[in-house]
Amino acid sequence: MSNERHRDLPEAVAEETVAEIVSRTFTSIPRSDQRRWGEMYMRGLLSVEGKKTMRALAAGAGGGVEQSLYQFITKSPWHTAPVRRELARLLQRTAPRAWVVQPLVIVKVGQHSVGVHRQWVPQIGRYVNCQRAMGVWLTSDRASCPVDWRLALPDSWVAEPGLRRRASIPEDVGSCPPEQCAIDAVARMTEEWDLPARPVVMDLRESDATRVCTELLRRRTPFVVRVDPSLLRRGSGDLLRALSRRCLPVEWYDHTAGALRATSVGTATVRLPLPDAPGGDGADRADLVLLGAWTDPNRRAPGEYWLSNLTRTRVGTLYRTAALARKAERDMAEIADPLGLRDFEGRSFRGWHHHMTMVSLAQAATVLSAPPADAAPPAPLRLPPVPARPVGPSRPVGPAARPVGHGTLGASAA
Q1: How many CB atoms lie within 10 A of CB 354?
Q2: How far apart are CA 267 and CA 72, in angstroms?
Q3: CA torsion, points 305, 227, 219, 81, in degrees to nearest 10?
Q4: What is the spatial distance between Cα 54 and Cα 103, in angstroms, rounded to a whole number?
Q5: Residue 408 confidence class, pLDDT cut points 50, 70, 90
Q6: What is the rounded CA–CA span in Å between residue 289 and residue 32?
Q7: pLDDT tens readout for residues 29-43
Q8: Which has more pLDDT, 46 or 234?
């Protein structure tokens, strides 16, 4: 790359960081010209203003390279998994505390982009013509970055040979609901990439939470997942009373508000029906810890419910882990979206994954160029806690060293 190209980088992105990312993650890309186009594409994502079309990225590089960039993204047969694996290993220096599963909806006008389908999207609350995907983000209080992506292909795309051929969908790729895509990505990170396991944080309020939790338990994956209160059935009244009686104020950093908050969080034990529980002892259930967080002062019931299999972890640690979902959500809006997360206009399955990998690398350049952790930011605003409102007969609130109370989860989420 020329010195002129070096000056294209934004002030917040360090040249040495980009060079390290390229040298570490492009080792699996066989040809030097492919690596050169990959670096140019990533630099374009970082430096070009506005929508990251192929033409805009080529113009930012001085023109005359649009066809080469297009070839690198849509046609070149380099594999994304080794690049993403090395990125994930590089990001271990940010000390990630959780793997946050972040859904992505890419609204489309036409019907030709791979995986586009008119479908109900819970995050939007209506039917839209879109692609749906899941990203897994390595997340800490200071940094978050996506390292793996899965495109949720509907049945209509994988069952029609013409569509498969047009989008160059590999033969071994089938239809995949978004939640299963996330489970598969997490499994690859632990089983194939050999990363240090971290709790999976995921919102399952619009999903079959029982099925997802069962699958994560089967894979022995730690998790903290948000669930809809309708998932709780027998004993729900006792659970609510237990949560309100045994709660503590938990201080956590709210990345959406840029403030330290203190939220009253209670715990209880719930039992998940599990015919094939891990351990080989024929158990028919798994004990999970339920967290109820009082986020709304006008409600007697908690505003958030979280389930976890980390039954020996302190309630404060569990809730702060759950709160990291807000960090990934904010960084997707403030960093990944401006880098072109939803801007790929090609039609191929390979091209989509190549583009998303380059966006992840560009975000890593931004994240890893940030000041070190010892450069502490100004003290944030501290907001007062929302107290839990007692349910039923009043009892003193004591320390929640162990979860109490029992309930049973329903067969599926509403």
Answers
A1: 24
A2: 51
A3: -110
A4: 25
A5: low
A6: 51
A7: 999 999 999 999 999
A8: 46
For the full predicted model, state whether its pTM sits above 0.90: no
Beta bridge partners, 128, equal 119
Average pLDDT, the chain: 86
> For residue 80, what are its two tokens?
């994304």
pLDDT band at 275 (very low <50, low <70, confident <90, very high): low
Q: Give helix 15-25 / helix 349-368 axis angle, nearest 10°.
A: 140
Residue 183's alpha-carbon distances to 114, 135, 148, 174, 189, in angstroms, are: 21, 11, 12, 15, 10
Give me the percent of the chain exceeding a pLDDT of 90: 66
Residue 384 in tokens? 């007062």
Please write down the HEC assignment for all residues of the chain: CCHHHHCCCCCCCCHHHHHHHHHHHHHHCCCHHHHHHHHHHHHHHHHCCCCCCHHHHHHHCCCCCHHHHHHHHHCCCCCHHHHHHHHHHHHHHHCCCEEEEEEEEEECCCCCCCCCEEEEECCCCEEEEEEEEEEEEEECCCCEEEEEEEECCCHHHHCCHHHHHHHCCCCCCCCCCHHHHHHHHHHHHHHCCCCCCCCEEEECCCCCHHHHHHHHHHCCCCEEEECCHHHECCCHHHHHHHHHHCEEEEEEEECCCCEEEEEEEEEEEEEEECCCCCCCCCCCEEEEEEEEEECCCCCCCCCEEEEECCCCCCHHHHHHHHCHHHHHHHHHHHHHCCCCCCCCCCCCHHHHHHHHHHHHHHHHHHHHCCCCCCCCCCCCEECCCECCCCCCCCCCCCCCCCCCCEEEECCCCC
CA 6 to CA 375: how far, in whole Å? 26
Angle at 227 between CA 226 and CA 230, to 5 degrees: 160
Residue 291 near residue 280, CB atoms below 8 Å? no
User: What percent of the chain is modeled with pLDDT above 70?
Assistant: 84
Nearest of 66, 36, 46 to residue 360 by alpha carbon? 46
The answer to whether the CB of 181 falls within 8 A of the CB of 153 is: no
Place of tokens 């879109």: 130
pLDDT for the residue 308: 97
Mark residue 194 as left, alpha or beta (left: phi above 0; alpha: psi -120 to 50; beta: remaining).
left
Cα gap 356→135, rounded to integer Å:
10
C-alpha–C-alpha distance, residues 287 and 284, integer Å: 10
Q: What residues contact 191, with CB distance under 8 A and at least 6 apart? A: none
